[in-house]
Amino acid sequence: MSQSKKIETLAELVRERYGPDQQYDVLDNAVVRHILKHRSVRSFAPTPLPANTVQTLVAAAQAGSSSSNLQVWSVVALQDVAHKKQHAIWAKDQDFVRQAPLFLIWLADLSRNRLLAQVPEGVRIDGTDYLESVVLTAVDTAIAAQNAVLAAESLGLGAVYVGAIRSHIRAIAKDLRLPPYVFPLFGTAIGYPADGLVTHIRPRLPQAAAVHHEHYDASAQKQAGQSYDQTLDAFWKKQGIEHPLWTRHLATRLGNVSQSGDERYALREVLQELGFPLR
Questions:
Q1: Helix and strand tally (H, E) in the chain?
Q2: Mapping DSSP to helix (H, G, I), strand (E, B) and coil, where does residue 252 land?
Q3: What's the CA gap between 243 and 235, in Å, rounded?
Q4: Which residue pairs, CB below 8 angstroms and at least 24 apart, start in 166-170?
Q5: Helix (H) or strand (E) holding 198
Q6: Are the CB atoms for 44 and 79 separated by under 8 Å?
Q7: Dist CA 137 CA 80 (whole Å)
Q8: Maximum C-alpha span of the chain
Q9: Helix (H), strand (E) at residue 152
Q10: 3: phi then psi, degrees, rounded to nearest 5
Q11: Angle, CA 213 vertex, CA 211 and CA 218 arms, to 5°
């Protein structure tokens, strides 16, 4: 089974999440501890999952909040080896997609409501045509997926999100036979962590960079970024991984994307091809 540093106290969890220089008084209960223990798993054992895993994770996902109870997401469960292999290639050839016994592809789905709506005379279903509805589907789908991941982790499983599927939205939409008004948002690879895998909690930005009181205030962000550079650099060194400073990583990840040819950065055009007017 996987190995990770055994963390017993809430204070230890907070220290792992933020580094030793940041101190926060966090209210303690089992749910808070479970959430703070989250870490991504990118290497999976071939151990089969329980037969009711998908049903359990979808039940947890559907327990998430839904704007106006519109329920504007769907999910495709991939378990066939050959099918996962192809999607691993589309997901930047990431091997953990092949390894994981379950790969969930989360869909923003406005098609179902257009199909099921009982429309009174004089009413035209045009709300699905606007950018607001695309944003709404993304929010609701992310809420659902996070519920599923937390449920998976509570069952001893590991998970990692895969946004790289948006690099090949057209191919994936065709492969999954998606109707108009549906597009793949991200994937989640799920399985038992690989034997001997050592996992650690990756630190996050100090709260001063993310929390604002009454009004947005960026005055603490430079200092918080510098502090986080040091904390995350210490984390990478502990892992034995050479990694650029986080503030430099931002430029690497976000710079010159228009020249990348990645479909993620032609999303408006791709979504319009998939039937979203985006008014």
A1: 12, 6
A2: helix
A3: 10
A4: 166/263, 166/264, 166/267, 167/90, 167/91, 167/92, 167/262, 167/263, 167/264, 168/90, 168/91, 168/263, 169/263, 169/264, 169/267, 169/270, 169/274, 170/263, 170/270, 170/273
A5: strand 198-199
A6: no
A7: 27
A8: 65
A9: helix 131-154
A10: -120, 145
A11: 60
Which H helix or E strand runs over 107? strand 102-109
pLDDT of amino acid 196: 80
For residue 193, which amino acid is it? P
The angle at the Cα of 200, spanning 197 to 202, to the nearest 5 degrees, equals 140
**Which residue, 63, 97, 95, is CA-closest to 78?**
97
Q: How far is CA 151 from the centre of its chain?
A: 14
Task: State how far the Cα of 89 lies from the Cα of 97, in Å rounded to an integer.
Answer: 9
Q: Are 103 and 190 in contact (CB under 8 A)?
A: yes
Distance CA 108, CA 184 (A): 6
Domains annotated for the chain, with CATH where assigned, are 3-202 (3.40.109.10)
| pLDDT at 6 (0 to 100) | 64
Cα–Cα–Cα angle for 265, 92, 141, rounded to 5 degrees:
65
Angle subtended by helix axes 131-154 and 53-62, to nearest 10: 130
Provide the angle, in degrees to the nearest 10, between the axes of the packed helices 221-239 and 246-254.
Answer: 100
pLDDT tens for the chain, 279 residues long, are: 444 556 668 999 999 999 998 989 999 999 999 999 999 999 999 999 999 999 999 999 999 999 999 999 999 999 999 999 999 999 999 999 999 999 999 999 999 999 999 989 999 999 999 999 999 999 999 999 999 999 999 999 999 999 999 999 999 999 999 999 999 999 999 999 998 877 789 999 999 999 999 999 999 999 999 999 999 999 999 888 889 999 999 999 999 888 888 899 999 999 999 999 999
